[in-house]
Please model this.
Amino acid sequence: MPELPEVETVVRDLRPLVVGRTIRAVRNGKRKLRRPWNPDWNPLLAGTRIDAIRRRGKWIVIELDRGSRLVVHLGMTGQFTAVTETEPEPDHLHLVFELSPASSRDRGAAEARDAGQGTAEPRCAGRKGRTEWFSGGW
Model:
């Protein structure tokens, strides 16, 4: 189970990559999550903008522009992976969030941070863990 510092590191690493971007599409990978992802959520999430990402305990809370949120728990070995559309998908893929391109300002910051790693990202792939979608307060 990731400790709080590891979860905070994931949140801080994801924040500049995803905040302000729009979820273009969501699709299931080849592997199932421990708790099933409801495919009815896919069209509800498409077109929503990611307004913020934060941590609440060991949960990652992704705030969306329509007042809803994604709540993610990484479990024992869960992780997020940011990859470009041209890179092959990781083998142990559970859920894919296709994101809008970053603005030129955001892209420059991401490229500076990721220099040499080849990750300019319009896909964010979740592996393992538990993901839920909520509309309402938490």
